[in-house]
Amino acid sequence: MNPSDSDEASEPPRALTPIACDIPLDILRVIFELSARSSSQMAWRLSLVSRLVNHWMDAVIYGVIWINSQRQAEKLAKTLQSKPKTCQRIKVLAIPYGVSHTTAATILPLCVNLEGLACWASKPLSIPSILTLSAMRRLSLNICGSDGLFIQPDFSARLFTSITHLELCDIERAWLQWHGFEHMQDLTHLSVYWHDRQKYPLSSLIPFVTRVFDACAKVRALVINGREFPEDTSTEGLRIFHDPRVIVMRDEVDPPMGFRYEWEAQWFAEPCIWDTANEIVALQETLQWDTLRCPEPDSDDVDET
After folding, report:
1. CA dist list (Å): 45 to 42, 51, 248, 302
2. Domain count of the chain?
């Protein structure tokens, strides 16, 4: 983060020196903002061009925030409490492991315009303000608390009504018994984590997968992540679940920077896990269609002469 000293409205102060350029400022601003969103580091670089561009970049820098530590989380909480207009600019927020539940509960009520949230602090759904967020599109949660207990999410809460991408980061299997997915009618992508494959075969997920697809008609990809999976799992979802929308994917993201890259990539023009999932779905759809067109001959149909 790079908190700006100015917390005024979108119009730049008159004292800011215009850039020596023949392009109208409103068009120039669009160019800079589009460039800034091309990567997670570009906004920082462009903010050094001039005081005016720094003012424009403020909204972009605050637009996507990744908190690195408990100390930074506390600093952000103080900043947001003193600058309410800054809170309105935050569209995407990531609160990683290590940030206390108390600090997360201080920050989240201030961020009322969130469209994306990754909250891996302990028991995020016990923070009432999360459940009332209404503009949320992408959500990544660690449901389990430090005591190891799970709480069935209330999928009828306002938070989930507009969700399109949902990631459940817990390695436990409590979500296998969850119900209420029918409240997420905009859900298109779901990701879960599966471990100890030898003890718990992937086929044991079939009832869960069926329940999700029956409840959420728009789901295009259901990703099952696991570190124990073989390197090539590109068509395993189709083989086990007989549905091209199920993707079995080896989890190769190394925390914490790997998590950060994956999360920020979703909001910039960079490949992310959902892009990979869509490509695998397309591959499996092609394989399924080819199988339907050219089925294996039955033994009774083979001419043995």
Report:
1. 5, 13, 38, 68
2. 3
Specify whether 213 is located in the same domain as 284: yes
pLDDT tens digits, one per residue of 220-256 = 999 998 877 766 666 788 888 999 999 998 876 655 5
* Same domain for 181 and 281: yes
CA triple 132-217-130, angle to 5 deg: 15
**Same domain? 271 vs 245:** yes
Predicted pLDDT of residue 146: 53
CB of 236 closer than 8 Å to CB of 212: no
pLDDT in tens, 24-65: 888 888 888 778 776 657 877 888 788 888 777 777 777 888
The residue with tokens 């600019």 is 89
- 27: burial class by Cβ within 10 Å (0-12, 13-18, 19+)? exposed
Rounded distance between C-alpha atoms, residue 286 and residue 291, angstroms: 9
**CA angle (277, 278, 279) in 5-degree steps:** 90
Domain with 249, as residue range(s), is: 171-186+193-291
Q: Looking at the structure, do residues 181 and 260 belong to the same domain, yes or no?
A: yes
pTM score, two decimals?
Answer: 0.78
